[in-house]
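Forgive a beginner's question, but would it be possible to get a protein, spelled out as residues, together with the matching structure tokens, please?
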Amino acid sequence: MSWFAGLSADVRQYLIITGNYWAFTLTDGALRMLVVLYFYGLGHSPLQIAMLFLFYELFGVLTNLIGGWLGAHLGLNRTMNIGLFLQVVALSMLLVPESSLTVLWVMAAQALSGIAKDLNKMSAKSAIKLLVPSDAQSQVYKWVAILTGSKNALKGAGFFLGGLLLSLLGFKSAIFGMAAGLLLVWLFSLATLKKELGKTSNKPKFSELFSKSREINCLSAARMFLFCSRDVWFVVALPVYLSSIIGWDHWSVGGFLALWVIGYGITQSFAPYFTGKRTGKFPDGKSTFIWAAMLTLVPTAIAIFIVYGIRPEISLLLGLMIFGILFAINSSLHSYLIVSYAREEGVSLDVGFYYMANAMGRLMGTVLSGWLYQVYGLTGCLFVSTAFLFAAATTSLWLPRHQVTEVG
């Protein structure tokens, strides 16, 4: 640990925050895959499975709204540690006897997990604004891309872990192991995170949660449409389709989705190299519109190929790869812009509001995913995804169009 002690205080804090975020994300991805596959195996319909995540997404919306205000009052270290602890509690709730594992009980556990996830995410993303100098835009973009990309790669690993543990150990043993591991991470975080990180000198009023600049409002709306476009077919429809129509087993579904999200996360980490960093330029509203417009074409193409029976399995898998690459770049652009637009004093308020919109998009997408798949199938989900992507691209037109160039 001597190398760790030799690092600057800010870098040490960044590594601790990133480690917390990684550990949390691994359990979050595994838990989602465990719940989807386990309850589908028990005979629940796609819509019923989607409803299991209703409180997860709904409480994520509320947490992001209030979490930024809490972060400004309590400090980001406390909101992050509260998130870790709540995830341990949520996992522990699923260790009850199978007869007590009712839909309402699982929804309550998912509600706690949703609160935990968004407290953790808001704290991690907000901390970067405070740990990196405001004039080092290149460093901000790089750190945001690495944090976001690595998080999604680990979420993919969590999908794989969830499918693997369900096949090898069963539901209860998998949940117990994750709860024990995250408990150790929480204890380490309590002892090492700086106490006053993100705590503002002037305490913001609750009414300030909704008072945002035009660029933050527009970016938040685009983010909501973007994530709704993904989750409307990815959360429930895709794993159920792979399992019931294509005939993949739990291991195959979990492994494939894991590889997809890992590749998506890796692409996010390298997004700055695709969007102008090598020429000294950084994203603005124009670049966000262009990348969103390109993404709009992908779900439409997949749906058309499936409808006309043109190698539907290959078309779906190839389309997923292209969608993952383009979606990763879009998401990374958004993640950089919110950190760039956010005020340094009260950064958690702006970031929290933005991720509230992100959670709202996930909530809409999750509910629609189960209902649309049950009524219209995967192609219906894909056409609705296209509509939301069009809305995301259109909203991006209202973002500021300016390029910041760094010299040297």
Q: What stands out?
A: The chain has 15 helices and no strands. Residues 403-408 have pLDDT under 50 and may be disordered. The radius of gyration is 20 Å.
